[in-house]
Amino acid sequence: MSSSDRSRLSVALVDVSPGHEAEFKALADEFESVMARKHYGRVDTIQDETLSLRFYAVRHWADADAAERCHADPDVQAITARLYQIARVTHVVNGARRLDASSANLRTTRVEGDRRAGFDRRRTPGTGPAGTDRRSGGDRRTGGRRQSDPGAVVDLVAAARLAREHASAAFSNFKVGAALETFDGVVVTGCNVENATYGLTICAERVAMFKAISEGHRAFTRIAIVADTKEPTPPCGACRQILWEFGGNLEIQLANLAARTAMYRLQDLLPMPFDSRLL
Q: Looking at residue 107, what DSSP letter applies?
């Protein structure tokens, strides 16, 4: 965008789950109120003419700083966490993000539905080979190209594959990488770290989540998990609990070194979670 114009624009698709339209509209109104009250900008949400459960959410940011403050706002993060329980959000354009070299290297040119998220609302009327590190087949690139399109989609699986290379798995030799995406598009990675006492070993998924929490992130959209296995390698029970506690009904992408192998919602893997609602 022109340096003489500090305003920024972000656009997302919001596909609301059937039966949750009223809840979504209430969240949209709540977010609109926060945006206006805290001078972050304004939001327009437009319903698709042919798909009644799809909305186009457009955020008109006052400037990039306002967008960053909004993303870090606990009130907004709470609204976002509730949204992800009832809708799938696809971030199409992010005109407010400040790119760094590491995130740019993981961007692709495709914009695929339901691969990205970020909350923005205002309601308007109306299989891998044997061996630990060997790879074969598929697209093995983890980046290297910088895209000028700010709405290009982050290749989360590629980020997880890259993170896996840093795993410390001297005892099991089973390396796992994870890449967790926050609601405003930041990717936080993790790898498994083993310990001689075994019980102190921590999985890649929890490393990514704890690192994200320690950096101030509180709302998340999806996580990719990569291991050198032919079949999908889902998160263990402890990781499922942690992911639910802090991320809610995340999209779970499973992959090996060659291709994506499965995709779930966390609620499918943890159908009866224990959380603060039970306390």
A: B
